[in-house]
Design a protein that fits this description.
The complex is a heterodimer.
Chain A: E1 4-7, E2 10-14, E3 19-25, E4 32-38, E5 45-51, E6 56-59, E7 62-67, E8 72-77, E9 86-93, E10 103-105, E11 109-114
Chain B: E1 4-7, E2 10-13, E3 19-25, E4 31-38, E5 42-51, E6 54-57, E7 65-66, E8 76-78, E9 87-94, E10 102-103, E11 107-111
Parallel strand pairs in B: 2-11
Antiparallel strand pairs in B: 1-3, 3-8, 4-5, 4-9, 5-6, 7-8, 9-10, 9-11
The chains are: A mainly beta, B mainly beta.
Chain lengths: 115, 112
């Protein structure tokens, strides 16, 4: 089955700096890669996603890049703000059959943005 | 408001005492799923359901049961809880054919 590795496990940055979180996946058939943000006491919430036919996607201060050949994808947050502090999870999803829509998650990254 | 709800949000119980965590969604989603979140392990799928009366095991199903008698509800049952089931549990749902999953607020379970 799919295996997703996420690094780093913790990341501390100063407000205004950029933050990058990286994930690798093992199943070349995976075709959907979402990123979730989990704030304290809440469930994960989708912040951005990318499909395997796209190399990069941006949404304001957040961007995701995908390298299918190397089987890795990254989350980039620019101009970080204290409210970006949270746990971030990457995930990969299968393409078909019973794998369709099944999310395999990375281990999570605790991002702390210091004012 | 479109949402996934879980109850209870917090539960402390003892080994062997059967419990049920409820999950309900008001978005008419076909697919529902249960995950557990443990430090350093991310979220792991326990069970999922593609539709009413259709359920299947995820990656860590041992010690859990589910049922899907109604489209909106997907309860998680621990018939004989053990301390290794102490965890944070999330229910999620999505529309069939779409990838985005919507998560509930979580249930923190402690088994003594």
């Amino acid at each position: 089955g799919e295996n997703v590795e996420q690094h780093p496990s913790t990341l501390s940055v100063q407000e205004g700096d950029s933050a990058v979180i990286k994930c690798t996946y093992s199943d070349s058939a995976s075709n959907y890669f979402p990123w979730y943000k989990q704030e304290l006491g809440k469930g994960p919430q989708l912040i951005i996603d990318i499909r395997s036919n796209v190399g990069e996607k941006k949404d304001q201060r957040i961007a995701v890049t995908l390298n299918k050949t190397a089987k890795h994808f990254s989350l980039h947050i620019t101009e970080t703000q204290p409210e970006d502090s949270a746990v971030y999870f990457c995930a990969a999803s299968g393409a078909g059959g019973t794998s369709y829509g099944k999310l395999t998650f990375g281990q999570g990254t605790i991002l702390t943005v210091h004012p | 408001e479109a949402q996934v709800t879980q109850n209870p949000r917090y539960l402390i119980t003892v080994t062997g005492k059967k419990l049920t965590v409820t999950c309900s969604q008001n978005m008419n989603h076909e697919y529902m799923s249960w995950y557990r979140q443990d430090p350093g392990l991310g979220l792991r799928q326990i069970y999922y359901s593609m539709n009413v009366e259709v359920t299947d095991k995820g990656d860590v199903p041992e010690g859990y049961k589910v049922s899907r008698k109604e489209k909106r509800n997907f309860p998680l049952i621990l018939e004989s809880p053990s301390p290794n089931q102490t965890s944070l549990y999330f229910c999620a749902s999505r529309v069939d054919g779409y990838n985005e999953q919507f998560f509930g607020p979580g249930t923190r379970l402690t088994v003594l």
